[in-house]
Amino acid sequence: MPRPPIDAAAVRTQAAMVRYEVAEDRAAALAPALEAVLASLDALDAVELRETPPASTFDPRWER
Amino acid sequence: MVLHNLTLSAAAERIRARQVSSEELTRACLDRIAATEDKLKAFVVVTGDQALEAARRADADAAAGHYHGPLHGIPVAVKDLCDIAGLPTTSSSLVRADYMPDADAAIVERLKAAGAVIVGKTHTHEFAYGIETPTTRNPWNPTTIPGGSSGGSGATVAAGGAFMGIGTDTGGSIRIPASLCGTVGLKPTYGRVSRAGVTSLSWSLDHVGPLTRSVRDAALSLAVLAGYDVRDPGSINVPVPDYLQGLADGVKGLHLGVPRNFYFEHVEPETERLVRDALAELERQGAVLVEVDLPLADLYMAVEFGICMPEASAYHQEMLRTKATRYNDDVRTSLEVGEMIAATDYIKALRVRQRIKEGWRDAFQSIDALVAPSVPAVAVTAGQKSFTWEDGVEEALINGYVRLSAPGNITGLPAISVPCGFSKAGLPAGLQILGKPFDEAMVLRIAEAYERSTAWHEQHPAL
Q1: What does pTM read for this prediction?
Q2: Among residues B273, B451, B292, which one has the least CA distance to residue B370?
Q3: Predicted confidence band at B349 (pLDDT cuts at 50, 70, 90)?
Q4: Which of A6, A7, A26, A37 is the best substitution to test chain B (most B C-beta atoms within 10 A)?
Q5: Whether B156 contacts B77, CB under 8 Å
Q6: Nearest-CA residue of chain A relative to B236?
Q7: Does any CB of chain A come closer than 8 Å to the CB of residue B199?
Q8: Is B423 a catalytic residue?
Q9: In the prediction, which pLDDT does B345 show?
Q10: Which among B159, B163, B144, B198 has a CA at the least distance from the CA of B35?
C-alpha cells in the first residue's frame, strides 16, 4: 500500500505519537523532508529479505 | 625547512634524532594556527599553554631517554566530538556549549600515552550531522567548504596547524574533508578504534580515525589509535598488526576492483579523469584492474540514512525536547524527521545492511581492494546546497558528498582517501581505496604505492 501524501497535519500527528510537539509552520517545512526520507526507505521493500536478520550487533568480519 | 609543512613521519624522525624539539614543533604549529585561523576558523579552542607544557614534558622525557614512539612530541588536533578532561566537548553546538567531561576519550588516552601534544579541538559540522562544517573554510580556497563533518581537522592538517587531526566518520566524515582539503583520511574497519568518550551520531555506523599529510603518517597514527576496548560495545577484539610492515611492498600483482556501477555515476568529469589517471598509474605499477559489479547499489543511501537518522534521533531525544531552538536548522530538521521513522523501517534497513555485507564479501572474492573516487566533486562554494549533474538531475549536497563514502560505513570496511590531483580551479580530489575487514594494511599499502609516484601530497595551500 503506498503511503498517503504527507502534509503538515500528518507531521503533527506523527510527532504527537512520539511525544514531540511541532508548531504548524515548522510542520509544513518538515513535511517534504519526511516524505523524501520515507519514500527512500520504501525502496527497501524491493529486497527479498526472508530470514535475513538485522545487523543490529554488527561485526564486519566475514568469518569468525 | 618549514617545520609546520613536514609530514608527521619526518617530524618524528627529527624528534627521535634530537634535531628538533617538540616545543619547536608545537610553537611552529601554534604560530601557523595564529596566522591562518582568521581565514579558516578550524578550531573551537586552541590549547596553546597546555600544548607547550605537554611539549616540554615530551622533550624532558626524550632527554631522559624515555621515547614513547613516533607520535612522541608531535602536535595533533582532536575533533570536538571527542572528550578531553577539563575542556568542553561542544560538538560545535550551542546545545552542548557547557558540556564538560571529566575523563579523556579512549583515543585521547592513547594519544597522550604515545606522547602526542594536543594543540586544540577542531570544528565539526554540528554533532557530526552534515558535510559542510559551516564554521570553517577550505585552506585551498577559503570561499569553499572544507567538507565534513571533520572539517576543522581537514582544514588545519592541510594548512599546517597540526601534523594529524582526529576525525570521525559515519557516512564519510573523515574521507570527505580529507578529499576536499587534500589530505589523507583513513576510516578504519568498524570496531578497530574505540569510540568510548566520543559523542555518537549513529552507533552502528560511527568510526574514528586520522587525517594526515601522508599515508605513512596515517599508518603511524592508526598504530596508536587501534585496539580493543571493552567500554565500546562496537569494539572488536582482533590483533593489531604492524602497519609499517609491507607498507612499501607496492601493488605489483594485486587485483584491484574498479566498480562498473555506482561509483562513477554522477561524478564531475574532472574528478573522474583524476581518478581514472590514478587507476592507470596503479596499473602501470603492475596492479591488475578487475571490473566488478556492486550489489544493491541503489539502496546504499536508503540504508545509510535509514540507520543513521533514527539512531541519531534516539541519541538526541531528550535534548531535542528541551533545547530544540539551540540546534542549527539543518540538524534540527534531520533529528525531527528521524523521530518519525518507524522502528520496522529502521530494522529493515539493518536487514538490508546484512545483505549488502554478504554481497560485498562475494564481490571481494576476486580482488584485494576496491578503488574508486572518494567524493563525486571537489569542494563547492560555501552556501551551495545542491549539485546539478550533467543529465539535469539535482542532488542535495549532503547526498552527493556522502553517496560514495557511505558504502564504507554500511559495510564497515576499511577505507582511505588519498590525494589524486587538483581541479583546474586548484582544488584537491581524492582517490578512495576500500579493503577487506581489518585489512587496513592492504589499503595503506596501495595508497602508499600511489602516493609514492605522485607529488600531490607535497603541495601546500598558499594561505
Answers
A1: 0.97
A2: B292
A3: very high
A4: A37
A5: yes
A6: A59
A7: no
A8: no
A9: 97
A10: B159
pLDDT exceeds cutoff 60 at A64: no
**pLDDT higher than threshold 70 for residue B30:** yes
Residues in chain A with CB shorter than 8 Å from the CB of B320 are 20
The pLDDT of A36-60, averaged and rounded, is: 87
Phi-psi map region of B109: left, alpha, beta (phi>0 left; psi -120 to 50 alpha): alpha
Q: How crowded is residue B240: how many other Cβ atoms within 10 Å of its Cβ? A: 16
Closest CA to B173 of B154, B191, B155: B154
Helix residue ranges per DSSP H, B233-268: none
Q: Which residues of A touch B357 (CB under 8 A)?
A: 55, 60, 62
B320 at the A interface (CB within 8 A)?
Answer: yes
Which residue carries 619526518 as its cell?
A: B10
B63-105 pLDDT, tens digit each: 999 999 999 999 999 999 999 999 999 999 999 999 999 999 9
Q: Nearest by CB to B302, from A40, A52, A60: name it.
A: A40
CB-based contact, A51 to chain B, within 8 Å: no
Q: pLDDT, tens digit, for every residue of B366-388?
A: 999 999 999 999 999 999 999 99
Chain A residues in contact with B412 by the CB 8 A cut-off are 58, 60
Q: Specify the pLDDT at position A57.
A: 64
**Cα B463 from Cα B440, distance rounded (Å):** 33
CA–CA gap between residue B57 and residue B309 (Å, rounded): 43
Select the residue of A19, A40, A52 nearest B301 (Cβ to Cβ).
Answer: A40
Mutate to test the interface with A, among B129, B352, B358, B403 (most CBs of A within 10 A): B352
Cβ contacts (< 8 Å) between A54 and chain B: which residues? 347, 350-351, 353-354
- B286-333 pLDDT, tens digit per residue, is 999 999 999 999 999 999 999 999 999 999 999 999 999 999 999 999
* B441 has pLDDT over 90: yes
Determine whether B173 is an active site residue: yes
> Hunting for cell 549536497 — which residue is that?
B397
Give the pLDDT band (50/70/90) at residue A58.
Answer: low
B18: left (phi over 0), alpha (psi -120 to 50) or beta: left
